[in-house]
UniProtKB/TrEMBL annotation:
Protein family membership: Belongs to the binding-protein-dependent transport system permease family. FecCD subfamily.
Organism: Arenivirga flava
Protein name (database record): ABC transporter permease
One Pfam entry name: FecCD
Keywords: Cell membrane, Membrane, Transmembrane, Transmembrane helix, Transport
GO cellular component: plasma membrane
SUPFAM superfamilies: ABC transporter involved in vitamin B12 uptake, BtuC
Membrane spanning residue stretches: 25-46, 78-95, 107-127, 134-153, 165-186, 207-230, 250-283, 295-317, 323-341
Molecular function via GO: transmembrane transporter activity
InterPro entries in alphabetical order: ABC_BtuC-like, ABC_transptr_permease_BtuC
Amino acid sequence: MTTVPVGTASDAAAERLRRPTRVRLLWFAASLAALALIVAASVAIGSRDVPLPAIVAALGGGGDGLDAAAVQTRVPRTVLALVVGAALGVSGAVMQGVTRNPLADPGILGINQGASLAIVAGIATVGLTSATQYAWVAIAGAAVSAVVVYTIGSLGRGGATPLKLALAGAATTAVFSSFITAIVLPRNDINSVVRSWEIGGVGGARWDVLTQVAPFLVVGLLLSLGSARALNSLALGDDLAAGLGERVALARITAALGAVMLCGAATAAAGPIAFVGLVVPHLCRLLVGVDHRWLLPYSAVVGAALLAASDVLGRIVARPAELDVGIVTAVVGAPVFIAIVRRRKVREL
């Protein structure tokens, strides 16, 4: 077996991660500018459009009654969309880095569905009501689902390959969906609540929900951002990462825990939303490369922008009604991801 000198591996890694800082900063500034415009649109657009002067007046505590009511309703909704989008974007980027799987996503790997099953079971059995209870149960369900999928995907020759993980995730998602249906079907008292929540949306957002899930999101984000350097090493393969001094098992567990916490808390707050964690990291790699020290912050910004923009689009296309953001991300995300794969021919990370 040929041994690659550590110095050579380090040089190769540095070359692969290198991207002009000026370009990265310019794209980051452009992303923040786009995010600001989307936030303004999210507050202004709805069944009743609110002009900018009325928004400013409402935020200052004044303005017309109907305009002020619309703004006060849309501000927490916009914040929830930003927070959930950022969490799902970072979670997807970390999962793709941990598994070295370009198809890794909380939805495709069954993590969302595991969190959903845990919440639905909790609602049906012990009557969960608060966002904090949802978050704890969702994180536990997401963690169990992650372990199940990784164990199944590791069976047989070659270990946990990207294809086997994707297939294991699809099978697990199908099984968990059947369990959810079996729980909800005979329970008319919770049917409407669960069905509405399962679609995934940010309508009806409340500040108390945000404050209750915020600690879980903060811890998950810190764990994920703190794993950036380790994810860069893991991208070289476990053997080379260990040769570079990385504690591979600990690094993988820490990063995975951060991703599971982000995914579980986001699912608890807004329901299972697909494709954000899949599409966003690929878009960001096209802009800033594969260095996770840049990729994770970019994924947070772009994920927030994508989910908020999807929420605005859902209000526009079905006026005066709305499409839940989970439906919009599914419709928009699938063709975008296919286009990225076809153009870049993404095979591995």
